[in-house]
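note to self — DONT lose this again. spent like an hour looking for the file last time. sequence + predicted structure for the chain T wanted, 1032 res
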Amino acid sequence: MNPLDGLNARQKEAVLHTDGPLLIVAGAGAGKTRVITHRILHLIRRGAAPESILAITFTNKAAKEMRDRVAHLLNSQPATYNQQQNIDAGARVVSGRLSVAGHPWIGTFHALGVQIIRENSRRLGIEKHFTIFDKGDSLRAVKEALKRAGHDPKSFEPGWLLASISREKGNAVTLEEFRGSAGNDYLPSVVAKVWTEYEQILRSEKALDFDDLLLKTALLLQKEESVRKHYHNLWRYIHIDEYQDTNRAQYLIAKLLADANKNIAVVGDADQCLLPNTAIETPLGVKKISEVAKGEAILGAAGNGMLCDTKIDKVRKRYYDGEVVELTTAKGKKITATPRHMLFARLTLSLDQFYVYLMYRRDKGFRVGMAKSVRRNGGGQNAIGLLVRCNQEKADKMWVLKICTTKQEALYFEAFFGATYGIPTLVFMTCGRKMAIEQTGIDRLFASIDTKKRAETLFADTGLSFDYPHYFPQGTTQSNTKRERLNVRLSLFGDRRKSLIHPWGMSRVSINTTADSLKRNLEKAGFRIRKGKRRDFRFEVARLDYGKAEQIASRIVSLQPNMTLIRNAFLTKGKNMLFQPISNIFPGMTIAHKNGREIGEDTVTAVERKQYRGDVYDLDVRYVHNYIANDIVVHNCIYSWRGAHIRNLLGFEKDYPKAKVVLLEENYRSTQTILAAANQVIEKNKMRPEKTLFTKNSAGEKVGLFAAYDEADEAAFAALTAKRLIEDGTPPREIAVLFRANFQSRALEEAFMNAEVPYQVLGIRFFERKEVKDVVSYVRAALRPESLSDMKRIANAPPRGLGKVTLLKLFAGQESSLPRGAQEKVRAFRKLLETFKEKLAAEPLSVALKWIVSASGLEAELKKGGADDTERLENIRELVTFATRYDIPPAGGAEEREAAMNQFLADAALQSDQDELKEEKNAVRLMTVHASKGLEFDHVFITGLEQDLFPHARFGEDERTEEKAEEERRLFYVALTRARKKIFLTYANARTIFGARQVNLPSEFIFDIDEELLQAEAISNFEYPISKKIEY
């Protein structure tokens, strides 16, 4: 196929840019995954080796979807482990080395870390086939580390300690670095001691935790030039999704891998929105933001204190789970928004305040300081204290860290921020003053300390943004020096010219500098410049549409490095405000607000941070790109991501000055008519003539019936149909997928992850279920008996008479002190694990797992139990089915079988932890029919409608009694009556259970429904292949 088929103009632009850095800015539904996959296809079509392409995502679900799509585009399908492991899990491991067989490497950052660490395990001094600790393993290890460090686990929350260690590792901080910075402070010292013991536990069990997968990879690439060059030669084209969410370690990995070739394409998503109840001003009154629509008239600021009517071009709605910021003003106004939502604000001249600030100078770095909020400038007039400080030290940017009411308080916080983040409080320049330290000493200090890295931590902790300081110096440097400062000003309503047709001020882009390099670049790019009053030159242009002005400014900024774009707005009469994320705003700052028919000023009195889960909204406003929310003027944040110069994605353009930026417009599909019927019509069930499931309604939709090829086909239908419903306006929470047996959830979870549909399993997720983790621990313990966490888990699963005292002595290396009977039990247990290891080495993984389940006693133990144990056994059998993906045919070698087995363990660990589901409300519900009782949804999928599954035939039972049959039928009735608008019934003609393929008959329940009420369904027309295992 042609890689450009089916793409819009912006998507084609991104696909066709193959050389040099690329930033793709996209919102939900904009087709960003499609762009990346088609770009990969285009690269291959134009001659790039498939194995030279790397694509990194954040979650397994995104990686699996991308792998499947790429396989589909390459006219291939996902296969078993040994055939296309680079598609199925990121890369194929042969002889401990990363190799590929004609396919790109696609996976998560963590999966990439696993592969790179394994290939370089000798360099790192790590066991090649190390164990990966999931969160549960890590938490248990931290509890043990607390005891070893001499602390009572009840005095310190292990989860907090683990989070502290995880945060530091994510910031690319090693234990040695943390110990060095902890000093004598009590809590950091405790963390350092526990961390030390925690690392010893990891080493003793030959294990790494999830954060190690990133940290050790980043440090390896940073320190080993030969390793870095190897991957530069291997991967020449790099793609990274959700780039704005990278932590420091992930950022370093991406940057180090891309340093040589610079062919890196990243995708970023906007996260700037308001809550549903936010009041929006319209000409006809106030409406909630959740109620306004495209094309509707609303009010916006017009410049110089005026208002104007404008229109909504787009409404954006998305689900959000995270921190929001609430501002309260002196006039009683409140607004709550996601941290990066843009407002307009400025510092005020208040005589009774002191600023604790962070100052940046490009040739020096960062420093912390303190200043009065008002100081006398060179002309003897009152001025903002930051302005005076900035001019004295020739700084480039300044941020307020704290506004204090007394000098003593300010001095305290100056010392606090300096000490906490290791940033000097020493000035950048002596400015001719007599100081104990000379300028050469100051220069030496700032050259010796990496203040940039420390400031990044401060930015992350405070929520401040490097690109939106509270103060910029006026203008640009007036000479061609090594540190020439080049500012481009973009002023919303900077030109007051208006007309009757366009009653708002024009937006202006302006430059005033003497820099010859910029002059040449502007002329080369086709911009007209004019001479200034002295030796300087000027550039000015004005546009009615602020968006057009931003595009021009962004183009100019991209012409050469060290240029800064300053965004400001003239909303009130004669006053200038800066664009500021709401997270940058402090009490005491001034913001713009609506006061009657004018735009005036209001003072922020309180700032509070809260957690929020739910829908959030933003608007794309025509021309003026601002609107009135809760009487406060806010920026049109959708459009703030449209410019060709987006600097919010961790300084991407600072790292890659020549980056091309492409915006993918959000894909707002035409909304279909809301499903008309409130009820579905199902005639009387033959065995329940006394009950009417639904009353007939001519406006109601028919019951959908989908006949699937297998369980993967069935799950894909449910996921993709749910995706279509969501895109047509159905809230995810109003969709439920029901199944009769718990083991069915694994295929469904996988399909929903692939389709990027938010879902929530009511109950325990598949890889987090105890019985599943028990089997995985048996495999890990057989391969690595030194893994104490696994040995503890399975020692008595099922019970085998190994008491607590026996286990303590066993793990303490005191086996010889045990009674003879206990020693015999321990020897029998060890021998059992040895036989498991032999079986794993000799047989395909699924066959070995079947044998382990039986020989361990797990199967027999669960067969003796009740219905719950039967479900647990079904889950174990589904794990065996999952393991068939990693089976190596008899012809395969022992080394290849070992690699596949280790990949199985890594994938199981990554899936159980990395894609951990948050307790979010707005997600499709996956649950058993039993769990659905008492609940209602607009749309319900009833899956697995096959004879002996639903109605269910318990394993080991030869026949069903009439009583049990009627109970199954009542369950089906419960499932049907969960739906308010639409029901989808699905069954699979073939289903793999316990590793064996079974051909199924449709459930008898389907035939109880009149054919006139049924409608055949097909998989929605999405670009999503159905995974089929390739048989040999």
